[in-house]
Amino acid sequence: MSQRGAQGLPIDLTGKRAFIAGVADDNGYGWAIAKALAAAGAEILVGTWVPALNIFETSLRRGKFDESRKLPDGSLMEIAKVYPLDAVYDTPEDVPEDVKANKRYAGASNWTVKCLIPMCLKSGRKLLKTVKNDFGSIDILVHSLANGPEVTKPLLETSRRGYLAAISASSYSYVSLLQHFLPIMNPGGASISLTYIASERTIPGYGGGMSSAKAALDSDTRILAYEAGRKGKIRVNTISAGPLGSRAAKAIGFIEKMIEYSYVNAPLQKELLADEVGNTAAFLASPLASAITGSTVYVDNGINTMGLALDSPPLST
Fold first, then answer.
1. Domain of 202?
2. Where is this gene product found (predicted)?
3. Which pTM value belongs to this model?
4. pLDDT class for 126, splitting at 50, 70, 90?
């Protein structure tokens, strides 16, 4: 874990502010990235999916996350503010009526992407619960969210609606977030997303257009690196993380098998820790990575380099 004041070459993000989109519990990569950035000194803001907002805030308030909030120096990670967010929608006008009427969204407001930044209009009055009004600017933007409603279906059985939903939630949401946050990002800042090896290799069972969405995310990283670099002096990178048994990943249906496969076949035969991805994000967000942009950084114990599965039955005969 990154830590301020460490001997050698420290990662110091003191005075920096980070917004992490997609934190809804304490066992995913988004949480680990938030912890690493906090350990390096950054102020933490998070965007939480609206249906998970109440239980997440309640768990924080009641101390259920206190053990996992512990930083290397013994202090607890502080989250300056939790914002409701559904990055599938840019404006309130984009939200379908059935979603507006859904009881899981009841009581929440200002949760579309645009409402986070330039301020939405409602009944002729500006809504003030935005990152811009609350904090002025940010230095680090992290996209840690994805969803494919038909992820368990083979691509040949995926509907147009399911495919486009995966693209919208898992890749365009990043384009939209960076597009809207860029005007309030300080020059020299960094933006990071999370991708997966399925963007470039066939992972049977990882369906519903999710592999396509990750491939789009990889491509967008390179284009956004150019555009955001020229327009706002912002670096843009993506981390290709190995499988993690988070609550979100369990939707795939065979995440434990993916973890086992990676353990058996990767060059580094060890468990992949969420903190390892968090530490990489802290590095990419820091001045130590000031010349790195448009890159896919693999944090997967090296499984991406393998062309042959060592546990393949023919090899054991």
1. 17-119+129-302
2. Plastid, Chloroplast
3. 0.92
4. very low
